[in-house]
Amino acid sequence: MVRRTKEEALETRKQILQAAEKAFYERGMARTTLNDIAVLAGVTRGAIYWHFSNKADLVQAMFDTLSEPLDELASAAENEDEPDPLGCMHQLLVKLFRQIATDPKTRRINEILFHKCEFTDEMCDLRQQRVQISAECKVRIERSLRNAVKRGQLPADLDTRHASLATHAYIDGQIGQWLLLPDSQPLAENAVRVVDGLMDMLRLSPAMRNGQYV
């Protein structure tokens, strides 16, 4: 009986997240209420509050579903014992771009994040969460870059902090622009080329080196 109740709760949570994704994608975040989501999911507002403390918490839970499949590769790149951290990062980014281009759910949620997410007063908690996640992402990227430097895969004088900021901006820029103008390039087919461009910048750009700008 307890197991059945737990399974039902998980199914209800899944229904709410699916309804939220559909509503946010069609109406935008600011114009979608929790009542809209409850009606679409076929549940009560009380059921939503049972699973999520507020709208921002619900939105973040929806975004969190995207990171799970990529966590293993990201962790490998950060691992000091990983013999090929740059290869792991390359594989991770190619997979990310291809997933956005070919998986409808991943594309929809990223479109919500990049182009349908208004940080109104109601969503101030979400803004703080996104700021924190962005900062953590930069830390993880820099850790991976340092591992690549230690393995001799990147220049010994690479400014890893500056390079991590540039890498994060490059990734966000590629995703945001493609979602806005999907006909600009076949992202799934060009994923390796797009990532190779980033790797060339990290390996070869003098602007990425320590001591170049004092």
Number of separate strands: 0
Listing every helix as H and every strand as E from the N terminus to the C terminus, the arrangement reads HHHHHHHHHH
Terminal Cα span: 67 Å
Low-confidence stretches: none
Mind telling me which CATH architecture of the largest domain this is? Orthogonal Bundle
**Major sheet: size, sense and barrel closure?**
none
What is Rg?
20 Å
Q: Which structural category do the helix and sheet elements fall into?
A: mainly alpha
Number of DSSP helical runs:
10
The geometry reads as elongated
CATH topology of the largest domain: Tetracycline Repressor, domain 2
Question: How many domains make up the 3D coordinates?
Answer: 2
Mean pLDDT: 89
- State the CATH class of the largest domain: Mainly Alpha
Q: Can you identify the CATH superfamily of the largest domain? A: Tetracycline Repressor, domain 2
The share of residues in helices is over 70%
**In percent, how much strand structure appears in the residues?**
under 5%
